[in-house]
TrEMBL record:
Region (Disordered): 246-266
Protein name according to UniProt: CRISPR system Cascade subunit CasA
Record Pfam families: CRISPR_Cse1 (PF09481)
CDD domains: Cse1_I-E
Amino acid sequence: MRVERDEHGDDRADVRGDGVLSYDLTVRPWIPVQCTDGTEGVLSLLDVFVQARKVRRIVGDLPTQEFALLRLLLAVLHDALDGRPDDTDDWAELWESAEPFDAVPAYLEQHRDRFDLLHPVAPFFQVAELRTGKNEVFALDRIVADVPNGDPFFSMRRPGADRLGFAEAARWVVHAHAYDTSGIKTGAVGDPDAKAGKAYPKGPAWAGNLGGIAAEGRSLRETLLLNLIAPGSGLVHAAKDDAPAWRRPPCAPGENRDPGFASRPSGVRDLYTWQSRRIRLHYDADGVHGVLLSYGDGLVQRNRQKYEPMSAWRRSEPQEKKLREVPVYLPREHKPERAAWRGMQSLVAPVGQGEKTGRNEPAGFLRPALADWLGLLVDEGHIEPAARLRLRTYGVVYGTQQSVIDEITADGVDLSVALLGEQDRLMGQTAVDAVGDADAAVRVLADLAGDLAHAAGAETDRAKKTAGDLGYAALDGPYRIWVSGLAPGVDRHEHREIWQESVFSTVWGLGRRLLDEAGEAAFAGRQFKTSKGTVILDSALADLWFRSRLRRALPAAQSSNGSGAFATGEKSTVG
């Protein structure tokens, strides 16, 4: 497989016949990839599609950059295929085709000028004449998200990003349109919303609002096709004028005010390339040395579930009261402290998934349209139910009025694609119930930690949180292994029992450790008021309560998992 490494090769700009600098992203390597043989390299936009079968996955400078680049590739593919696939049968033809991307090379050649990062009139994802009243140029830290704002000493780029090669700069431009922060930005000449040289907060770029989710196959070829949702499925909005940014007129400074803009995005091609910002790179022949970044096209979050397929959605009753509108759905963000498997309910298709909360009440949450799409492919027989894929999650946590990036979340869970289908929702329900088993057992462990802290006269909340984190960390690997084995042909009842036994053994061991480390103060105990009166809560009573609670939380667990103290009444080593 032919790959190139732009960072270690010649990343200088080309010089066109008229003397103008050029950096053609269709042929210059700029997208980092991991190949199926384990090697890594950097490919051009053209080669990513030509060699997609040999590419394992995109590997960006940050996980969120991978998500942004994947959506860019999907927009290219959808448009090169003229909006295909039309329906699931059409998708199946692409899936079985030896060359599903054969339309891409001619398409990229047709739109080659719009993929020139340095084009004098329509540079890729930029505004050619963007400037401030004083013609200022700013540091590249404004688009390089791995340089924490105000904390450059936490970055490998200390003290900041002074220069970038063109390949890396292109990646950060794509990322900025997806994940740029809010806050006060520089006002550009010609932006009617700018005041006194400042552009005031309009919120993060679009993908920054999402709990991003993508399906990953065994190769980039499979990944692109799995995420290629047919407009004819009814799962995503698709107007006839759906088009990516490079097939629209170049943006001007400020928000688009053209007639008809209010009806956009017109489809996923439009949304995946949404111009959330106005950007202009400043460069010389050797690379990029500065940038101007300001606000572009805003996008209201609420009720965009038919437009944005790569996020789950939650119902917001506070917004319903505020807007006097029912229902109101907002993107369901990922929480850094929660592993992807703990949100299994919003990914698979359990019994009653997203069901209505009462008579004539809208569903409390909606899973991603992407998950519905994959389930539809399974149910219609286009993907084998036993096939496996990875659901990857991406998200950003913003801080200080969304003006800085505090954390970036990225995770993934491997599962049988059958869990996403409607034909056997009991299998999806088993995966969800298993998460409930983990939650219940971890609560028991946290209660034990709280009881021991009370017995010792210490703070209970901190002890419970620490124990809860410990419990989930210990169950993380076991759940991922267990759910990967939940597939057609597996006895789900027996599989659930195996899981409860595993949880029991793990949490039992953690409980024993807490008891052994409780100390003399917890052994002596303190008074504690219960519904039946006041007792002396010491480590022995905490142990007794722990045993009883864990038995109730995991009724299917057996006594053969190193938990003989439960079955025999053997005394704890503490108390």
